[in-house]
Model the fold of this input.
Amino acid sequence: MSVFQRMSSVFQQKVNSALDKAEDPQQALDFSYEKQLEALQQVRRNVADVLTSEKRLELQAAQLKQNQSKLQAQAQAALQQGREDLARLALSRAQEAQSQLAGLGQQIEQMKDQEQKLELMAQKLQAKVEAFRTQKETIKAQYSAAQASTKIGEAVTGISEQMADVNLMVERAQNKTTQMQARAAAIDDLVASGTLDQIGAGSTDDIDRQLASGTTKITVDSQLAEMKRQLAAGSVAPQLSSSSAVVRIQGDDQYRLQKADRDQLDRFDADLVAAIRAGDESAFRGKLHEVLEFVKTKGERVLATQLPTSDVVLPSEDMTLAEAKEILADVPAGQRA
Done:
């Protein structure tokens, strides 16, 4: 094989491969169906042309018959007038017309046979086209279903190009998130240990943080002890000042109650202690909620910059009945109401 033949063969292979990739089966089927429709239309036009020629021949035959009848009449008229020569001429022309009529009859019969053959061919071709149309639609539906199934399978398994890119992006995002979480945890550990100090006016070092933690613990312990003393005494606000009282809700702010509200606060306290000693969870919850709402509604919130000494400390609303009983149990018997 010569170099040029090999180059031609390789070129044809490349072209066939490119055409095979570019060819769409659905478009190819539609194109074949259109070609078959065009062939069917051509056959029908041929049938129409044959029928037209047949009609033209029939018209010519009818005209020759009329001429023949006319010549026969002319021959008779010539004989009546004693013109035998004219009669002979008319009969000769009538005989020629008869010969032409015989030829036209044969041609008309041939046209009819051809017309029947073309009509039969058109019917067969039409049936073939209809069958191909049904087959075409079936193949297109199967191809579409197979194509959709392939795309779904590639998307689910992640082997398609788009899903592969998505998987890579998700993996990179997860890696970055894990890295940032680890960095944030490391910085929190360094700040908690005092290795790194916070920046700004409110920044503190490790000694300040330890001192603040100790102060907070002392404050909480003192408030808890005050609550125990009040609960054991059976009154929320014993020996309050004559003008107003400062009430702190544990975990919340301080509120200043007027003198007119102290009696109601005492009644709430008595009901709350009674519910604790009776072990009534529902009553305890209800009274605790009522007393806290009463303080928040009737009292005036104390500014954070003032921080006066609390006359009464109330538990937070999330305190359980068991914790309240434990506080009463820790109070010495001599101090219980």
Summary: Helices lie at 3-22, 25-80, 84-157, 161-193, 206-233, 262-278, 281-298, 321-330. The first strand starts at residue 244 and ends at 249. The radius of gyration is 57 Å. The chain has two domains: 8-157, 208-335.
